[in-house]
Specification:
The protein is of the alpha+beta class. 44% of the residues lie in helices and 25% in strands. The termini are far apart.
Length: 105
């Protein structure tokens, strides 16, 4: 089975840190924050095999970029596939204005 190398951009890492910090500090739930962080990280790790299982986004602009959206609990992991790499570009809260946040990043 084909193996892909996972590459997480600085922006995606920053997104994950923000999620952790918000849950740990604002919601006063550090254990829940670590659990959420780990669930996102574990989901990302599964993309090393058959990342094509996650469908392309539906808007034309994102489809042209090859952007894919994988839900993880209340969050979404955004990535594209380039040759032998899966490049994680963003991790965002799913209820936010995703289109706007993707344009701004």
């Amino acid at each position: 089975m084909k193996q892909y190398r996972i590459q997480i951009t600085d922006k995606a890492l920053s997104d994950m840190e923000e999620i952790y910090n918000y849950i740990a500090e604002q919601l006063q739930a550090p254990e829940a924050a670590m659990g959420q962080y780990n669930r996102i990280a574990d989901a990302i790790e599964t993309l090393d095999t058959f990342p094509e299982r996650v469908k392309l986004m539906e808007t034309e602009e994102e489809r042209e970029l090859g952007l894919r959206q994988m839900p993880v609990d209340s969050f979404s992991v955004f990535f594209h596939i380039r040759e032998e790499r899966v490049i994680i570009t963003n991790v965002l809260y799913s209820a936010s204005d995703i289109a706007k946040r993707l344009r701004d990043s």
